[in-house]
Amino acid sequence: MAAVNWLVLLLTHPLEFRTLLQFWLYHEQKRDIKAIKEHPTSGWDRESMQRCWAFLDKTSRSFAAVIKELEGDLARTICLFYLVLRGLDTVEDDMTIPDHIKQPILRNFHVHTVTPGWNYDGCGPNEKDRQLLVEYDVVVEELNRLDARYRDIIVDICHKMENGMADFAHKAATTGSIYLEAVSDYDLYCHYVAGLVGEGLSRIFSASGKEAPWVGDQLELSNSMGLLLQKTNIIRDYREDTEEQRYFWPREIWGKYGFKEMKEMYEPENAQRAQWVQSNMVLDALRHTVDSLDYLRFLKNQTVFNFCAIPATMAIATLELCFMNPAMFQRNIKIRKAEAASLIMKSTNPREVGLIFRTYARRIHAKAVPSDPNFLRISVACGKIEQWFEHNYPSFVKIVDGNSGPRPEIDGSDARAKIYSLERARDQQLAVKKRQQDGSSSNGSSNGFNGLGGQEETSVKEIIMYLGAAMGVILAFCGTVIYVIIKFTGETSPGYRGAVKAISSTLGLEKNEL
Questions:
Q1: Which of 26, 38, 389, 398 could connect to 354 by a Cys-Cys bridge, CB 3.0–4.6 Å?
Q2: Which candidate in 55, 247, 307, 329 is catalytic?
Q3: Residue 362 is among the residues annotated as catalytic for this protein
Q4: β-bridge mates for residue 402, sequence order
């Protein structure tokens, strides 16, 4: 930024000037890929890889910055992964390529990507990433140098993505339908162009050993991360895409507000209805926020976390900027540089990212108006973000600086803190009582009737007493029966002898004992 621009910013937006100055002074770039010590992993000592880094800077300067800070060979791997998918996307987006030429290129792009010397110069002259495909042979050369565990993932994701893109491109070319009809079609398209990117990144993170192996299996959460970013870009780029006849907003959303064509939305007389469409599109993107926050909590490597968290916080800030903003229909809008710098400096851990999401969710909710048909659903979507943060990071628990570093502290002024304190005291009392009971049971034999041991001894004596009484009753009953038989039948009668034998057998007595 030139000195004059700095001066103008200081006079017109002093707080933003301070933020940018802090970013320039204190935000350190943790890695310099050009340094000699980084050459083995960054590949900067090879001219072909230098060209790849240059292409990355041209396609996305902000994205390139976070890629370069990744540890080890992960930066070079993600750089090549991004360039491969950018090349594929360039072919798919180029409306000047006929379908009969585009189809075989798209469906075989995973083969071309590992074919030495392959490039393509058939893109239209106005395609901004045309030069990447003209010199694509340098990407092929570097990709073939990658470890097989990375290369196989990149080729697999490219294969899945190219078929999905080719299907949508062929449908548009052969049916004459230039619009996505249903929200499900919109989700599927975003899955192919962005959700698969999230899947590939998760698998690469796991393959590198910098994240747990199971992170690569979190397909649903990885897909949501990709869809949040992609849908945000689609919402923000409405005017640019419409002018270039690229239509990604599903008819199911904008058609129900009375529009027959997407370009009708930037007409001044349709501003009110266009605002409801915009609100509905933002609502659709917000449904991926909670999954994205869950995904970020899984990440343990700091550089990987920064790489994923910074675009996510930029996305929620962009959604807030677009929401209820009629300027979005007239031009391509972006968050201010100072705001972006602030987000980059704050996106360092899941709690801070959750706070950022909660802040922008509250701003979105504050902008919502009751006359909006999506008002209640917008409120619920924002409430889910609030709920996620409160569940994972309760607001009555404050993080304060202690002698040994940050530590949690309960805010006594919050009503929930009293409930927490009572429950904690109750749990401590139960724990003490349990320890006392466990201690008394181990000393029961010496404590007599005091405590649990005495109770067990009493129970045994009572059982023996009951058994003795029962045996006495049985013997008395048998004696009574014998007396009755002798009294009424006589000793010499056959009945007497049979009864005596039966009773003797029952009681186990010998003959001479009778």
A1: 389
A2: 307
A3: no
A4: 405
CA nearest to 478, candidates 440, 442, 508: 508
Q: Which of 151, 236, 251, 358 is catalytic?
A: 236
CA 237 to each of CA 83, 126, 245, 249, 462: distance values in angstroms, whole numbers, following the listed order: 21, 18, 12, 11, 86
| pLDDT given for residue 456 in this prediction | 45
Give the residue among 46, 120, 117, 116 at the shortest CA–CA distance from 86.
120
- Residues forming beta bridges with residue 17, ordered by sequence position: none
Q: Which of 266, 276, 201, 268 is nearest to 237 (CA)?
A: 266
At 514, list the tokens: 């009778």
- Pick from 420, 421, 394: which is nearest to 408 by CA? 394
The per-residue pLDDT for 513 is 44
Structure-block tokens of residue 158? 């490219």
What is the rounded CA–CA span in Å between residue 217 and residue 325? 38
Q: What is the pLDDT of residue 7?
A: 74
Is 236 catalytic? The answer is yes
Active site residue 246: yes
SS3 418: helix
φ/ψ (deg, to 5) at 93: -80, -20
Task: Tell me which residue of 263, 270, 274 sits closest to 323, measured CA to CA.
Answer: 274
Q: Which tokens go with 290?
A: 């909670």
Contact between 285 and 305 (Cβ < 8 Å): no
Q: Name 215's Cβ contacts closer than 8 Å, sequence gap at least 6.
A: 202, 205, 206, 298, 299
pLDDT at 351: 93
> DSSP alpha helices (H): ranges in 60-182?
61-68, 74-93, 99-107, 109-112, 130-134, 136-143, 148-175
Determine which one of 46, 246, 336, 363 is catalytic. 246
Catalytic residue, candidates 189, 266, 329, 360: 189
Burial class (CB in 10 A: 0-12, 13-18, 19+), 401: exposed
Q: Is 189 marked active-site? A: yes
Instruction: State residue 481's pLDDT score.
Output: 77
Partners of 406 in beta bridges: 401
Q: How far is CA 318 from CA 304, 340, 374, 428, in A?
A: 22, 10, 19, 47
Kindly state the helix (H) or strand (E) to which residue 398 belongs, with its residue range. Answer: strand 397-402
At 27, the amino acid letter reads H
Predicted confidence at residue 466, as pLDDT, reads: 73
Average pLDDT for runs of 10 along the chain of length 514: 68 72 68 87 92 89 84 93 94 89 94 94 87 94 94 96 92 84 94 95 95 93 95 94 89 93 90 94 96 95 94 96 93 87 90 95 96 95 95 83 75 77 86 82 50 48 75 82 70 52 52 43
Output the CA–CA distances (angstroms, integers) from residue 15 to 22, 296, 339, in the order listed: 11, 30, 10
